[in-house]
Amino acid sequence: MIRFENICWRADRFELGPVSFGVPTGAYGVLTGRTGCGKTTLAEILCGLREPASGRIWINHSEVTHLEPARRGIGYVPQDGALFPTMTVRENLGFAPRLKREPREETAAQVERLASLLGIAQLLERRPEHLSGGERQRVALGRALAAKPAALVLDEPLSALDEQTHSELVRLLKDVQTALGLTALHITHHKQEAAALGDSHFHLENGTVTEVPREKGGLRS
Fold first, then answer.
1. Same domain, yes or no: 134 and 175
2. Section 30-38 average pLDDT
């Protein structure tokens, strides 16, 4: 479960909130809204990268509002992937397990499993500069999953991809989320993307979030 409870945030003349909504355990939630409306700000508040003015954040049954990011159990995939440029794909995937001081053999096996799941086993020795946009996003997803998160947050991860790669990554995201049973919150401005991925659909406008009812044949935007 991911839950925002009366979250408010302010910067100069920009205000968010109060925002209250939740993604059920094991569901794929999408959050849409116009550029600049505050979607990324909400994602960063959820991940602990910004401090709300008021309100509470819950992951599963634990309040994480004031926990540091590393202790929230969230895997975060930002829009640009934010891979470590001097590390190989293998090293990027193994970064979180190494931070947790997991055994070397266990880390190596986990990297291989993730690479196979995401279709990037042939890329393990490459560095990010030698990857396509779709490959970089697969690696970014793998790095987030390597931390064994309780929840996954994706901030417009597919916005810079061509149409074919975009369609492939949409299917991959849904398959991986379902296979691992993760609770996910995916931020996008892409209507078809929201319809293809979302079990729950929320829309941010004028500082508040409302749930968008499902309609036959997909989600309404």
1. no
2. 94
CATH number at residue 219: 3.40.50.300
Report yes or no: 91 and 128 within 8 Å, Cβ to Cβ: no
Residue 210: band (very low, low, confident or very high) from pLDDT cuts 50, 70, 90: very high
Residues in the chain: 221
Q: What secondary structure letter does DSSP report for 26?
A: T
Residue after which a domain boundary falls, among 121, 148, 175: 148
Residue-wise over 87-113: b if at least 16 C-beta within 10 A, else e?
A: bbbbbbbbbbbeeeebeeeebeebbee
Shared domain for 65 and 161, answered yes or no, is: yes
Query: Would you list the DSSP string of 7-25?
Result: EEEEETTEEEEEEEEEE-T
Total tally of structural domains belonging to the chain: 2
Query: Which domain, by its residues, includes 160?
Result: 1-73+149-221
Q: Can you read off the two tokens belonging to residue 110?
A: 């986990």
Q: Which residues contact 77 (CB under 8 A, 6 or more apart)?
A: 137, 140, 141, 144, 152, 153, 154, 155, 157
Q: How confident is the model at residue 80 (pLDDT cuts 50, 70, 90)?
A: confident
Domain boundary among 123, 148, 173: 148
Under the phi-then-psi rule, with left for phi > 0, alpha for psi from -120 to 50, and beta for the rest, what region is 207? left
pLDDT tens digits, 124-162: 999 999 999 999 999 999 999 999 999 999 999 998 899
- Cα separation, 146 vs 73, in Å, equals 11
